[in-house]
Amino acid sequence: MVMKKTLYIPGPSEVEPETLLELAKPVMAHYGPDWHQLYNETCEVAKKIFGTKEYVTLLPLPGSVCLEMSAFNLIEKEGEKVVAITNGFFGDNMVEMLLSHDANVLKVESEWGKNVNLEKLEEVLDENPETKAVYLVHNETSTGVLNDLKRVAEIVKKKDKILVVDAISSYGGVELDFDQLKIDFAVGYASKCMSGINGICPVAVSKRFIEEVRERKIPVKSHYFNLIKYIKLSEEWSSIGHPHPTSMPTSVVRAFYHVAEKALEEGLERRYRRHADVAKGYRQAIRALGLNILPKEEDASPTVTTFIVPENVNGKVRSALYKDFGYMISGGLGKLENITLRVGHMGYTANPEFLIKLITALETVLKRLRTIDRSLNISDELETIWDGLRQYVT
Fold first, then answer.
1. Which of 39, 148, 306, 343 has the smallest number of CB atoms closer than 10 Å to its CB?
2. 250-266 helix and 268-288 helix, angle to the nearest 10 degrees
3. First to last CA, the chain
4. Do residues 142 and 365 lie in contact, with contact meaning Cβ atoms separated by under 8 Å?
């Protein structure tokens, strides 16, 4: 008998069976009236999750590549200044991406596991008034920190700069408020908090960002990443239902539409509260096992928990959980590679039933490896957590 495998990683996330059934339907062409309707309706529900009435497109790409689309369009000349806020592995990746586009990247760094340095951000922007844009990873999955997007947005708008947000691991699990916060470019994802199928990215773009691209003196140095081309074709080819310069994974888009509609049916406020409450339950349970959460409680992510383990057991814990229980969790990244483990609780798995199963298995594995006291029993703690999350039991 084949063991059922469960994804407890920070993406891709576990997919509900009914969502997988969307892939079993006949393949739809990426043009024509049926596709035109599906594409437009999917963009509309994606807008609601972004919290925007601005332009939204769907890109058949990984999230990090969609983020790079902003750089292709925004960075016009070598040496233009952009600020990159970084306090983790994916913030550092963003710095490297911007450097590859010949930007003059001004890093606003914070210690891994801590929130963004707002004072440093203001200082850097004051000292560099010609800065074009600020880049931020909303939810840093390497450290389990939810960065303070609201305060960053306030500072960026006060300085009248463009704000680009990597919302890949927060979209659908944390409130974004694209319009209210005056974000200019944000990338979501289908297979993290949405529990859709990986391979499609919703991307929201403000009128200001679009105008910035239109006013370039030097053409965008890319054919397929040219934002204006996407907007132009969405208008010119609308009559044949082909709003894209490329073919599209229509079955994956249909699956995304399905999960986005489900998110709206659940109610976004309730959905965000569910993610936050389940995450709190994970942190409570992990602390009950005698382990430490990397970030402070007030900075902790609602979609991924990063906790500290002895260096010699990192790989052994992951291996035992997968081999004996079929549960896949993630190891650390970068400088945290050997001393942390990461659990994703996103979308479908932001659920107390998944929490109890994983923590029970984790307790068993840690005792077997003598990482925690074998006499420890956290069943009462788990019962308390279950009672607190009972409203989310499906």
1. 148
2. 90
3. 26
4. no
Residue ranges per structural domain of the chain? 6-12+267-392, 17-264
Q: 306-323: string of b/e by CB count within 10 Å (b at 16+)?
A: bbbbeeebbebbbebbbe
Can you read off the two tokens belonging to residue 90? 């994916």
pTM: 0.96
Angle 280-203-147 (CA atoms, 0-180°, nearest 5)?
35
How far, in Å, CA of 122 to CA of 353, rounded?
43
Q: Is 136 helix (H, G, I), strand (E, B) or coil?
A: strand
Right CATH for 17-264 from 3.40.640.10, 3.90.79.10, 3.30.70.20, 3.40.630.30: 3.40.640.10
Q: 80-139, pLDDT tens digit by residue?
A: 999 999 999 999 999 999 999 999 999 999 999 999 999 999 999 999 999 999 999 999
In the block, which residue shows the tokens 């107390």?
A: 352
Tell me the C-alpha distance between 8 and 356, whole Å. Answer: 12
Sites in the chain below the pLDDT cut of 50: none
Q: List the alpha helices (DSSP H) in the chain.
A: 17-22, 33-50, 63-74, 89-100, 118-127, 149-158, 207-214, 227-236, 250-266, 268-288, 314-320, 352-368, 379-389
